[in-house]
Write the structure tokens for this entry.
Amino acid sequence: SAVISQKPSRDICQRGTSLTIQCQVDSQVTMMFWYRQQPGQSLTLIATANQGSEATYESGFVIDKFPISRPNLTFSTLTVSNMSPEDSSIYLCSVETGAVTFFGQGTRLTVV
Amino acid sequence: GNSVTQMEGPVTLSEEAFLTINCTYTATGYPSLFWYVQYPGEGLQLLLKATKADDKGSNKGFEATYRKETTSFHLEKGSVQVSDSAVYFCALSDRSYGGSQGNLIFGKGTKLSVKP
């Protein structure tokens, strides 16, 4: 199993600012994933973060808006840049280990 | 592309009622199928999974059978409890990421409320 800690758990931010979300795993993992869950919607993959290489972004998501760091095998950050109210969502990181995907508690972001 | 369609909620049941949450999928190849649960104020947790046709996943009294002929993975429980109140997500894995579980594609989620 894997225990994932995400910070912050929630935040209210002003439009035009940026927020960096941290994800810490209690074991070394090759791939980490970042998802977004918009209000009333399902989860959508933003990007896959591998240690030592650039993140791979899904269609509709770009690095300038959602820069990701992956400095080692247990940690990653996702930044939501130049925020607008449309970015209000829950952001979740996840890892796969032992053929099971584990999720963090999520970061509930509200942009005002 | 791959997709998951899940019955819309909310679903409200009385305690000890029978639960079915329908899930169908569209996929190329042979995906693995999952049910995740999100209890109020908590993160997503894996409830059960099935990795090939006719497999039955089960956990905490919940069951789901991987039906390739009907491309379905319906979640069932014979007798629900108040503590089962949560949002349930059906998901499939896209194995394009080098054979790992990789990207999970989720349904929209079904909110279940169980009344005493």
